Amino acid sequence: MVVRFYADNWLTASAGVGLLKALEHKGIEWEPFLKGNVIELPEDLFKEIGKIYADYLLSDFNQDTLKNLLEKERKKEFNLYNSIAYPKIGDFYSNSPIVNPSKTGRANAEFKKFYEKEKNIELLYSKAVDVVRNFIKEQFDELLGHERSQKVCFFCRERKAYIKDKKVKVFEATNFTPLAASPNTVENFFWNGKSNMYMCPECEIFMYFSAFAFQRTLRGTYMFVYTPDLRETFSLNDILAKEGSVGIISKTILEVAKTVQQRKSEWVLRNIYIVEIEKVGDAQANIHTLSLSPRLASALKDLIKDYPKYMEGLFDLFIEYVYSGRSLYEFLWSVMSGFFFKNRYKNLQGRKSLLVKKGTSFKDYLPYGLLYFVKFQEVLNMEDKDKVNKQVNWAYAEGKSLWEAYTLGMGEERAKKKVEVLSYRILDAIRRKDIDAFQQNIIRAYLEVEKEIPYVFVEALRDRSFNRVAYAFLIGLNSKGKQEEQETI
């Protein structure tokens, strides 16, 4: 006999990932239990579910941790269980059986009584582990001991929901607080005022594993990556756990595009769903989601491998731009403003300022890799990829060639000043989308070095080509070529 759990949405998938992580932590091979998006636990293993849960809760708890907790809390009313559990699960299960103060207080009292008589850290640690294990087991056993109703569980569709306080148990805030549905408000989600999200004890226990799947970010939020394939979902979130919270979105998408088989990567990207939970109160949270359009998914699959390494610190901002539909030319303009007007920006703040700061970090030239953002935007614009590459590379080469002509004709110092003035004018023309001003500056520049105006600038007079030609030319005019990639900070 087996106990089945179904992972068919991001919430139940997070529970599935959390359970698989807990099994893996215990050294249990979980692959045989995974049948598509269904986890089938043998009954004898499910009987150990309390210990499995507790041991994962204790995964980073050791004698040194206990010693520090005891030292830190010496002058306060120390609660052992809360100190261990709350940082990991407190934000997810407010007032639930596994974090309810009235229940956890009893667990703490047991440890406190032992602590009053015993000071040996090894014995204290052993007692602390037993207290946590026993507490979790008691709560899970109590759940499983409830009387069953005749209502079928909404989540597994096979077991019977249990009766709590003379009512059939339904999904509510204690089962996943960020969804902010209490027993009194959850019924508002249903047209007839009656929730049909009945819950069996097994699925309630399953839901308590969700917290283990979410990764804490530097901003204090929690993130989880969901795809319709549970094994793939586990793999992606495992990568995030190992990488840490920095650039959590970027690491996910980079790894999808780089590691998933080519024939499958676009499917996964099209169905990737990133959930971010932002706590705003003791029992309230905002849930933000991000998914990828087919066009963006296709662009990421084809181009992500070429994303400039020195811009990886801005990858999540890059994703925000393309996901929200903001033009990457705005992204580029901010970077270039920082490069050309280093002395203008003081005390920069906010996320957009990160782009300007990146521009100020470029010393004497613009990196060749900035062309990546031009090409990426044009793919999103559904322009012909080969045509765009040819045109962008041509405009870049012409910019670099003009710089060399200036240097040859008037020396590097004078050429540098000439290029600086020309660059300011071109950047301003780009900002104002003034094709005529761009054209006049190009004509004057080429007349000055007695060179024929390249045909690529005729193409720039067409509105659809203007941005890509103008930006590529400006980058080339202020570039050292591909070799500078290794030198860029």
Automatic annotation (TrEMBL):
Pfam families xrefs: Cas_CXXC_CXXC (PF09706)
Annotated ranges, domain CRISPR-associated protein CXXC-CXXC: 148-214
Descriptive protein name: CRISPR-associated protein Cst1
Organism: Hydrogenobacter hydrogenophilus
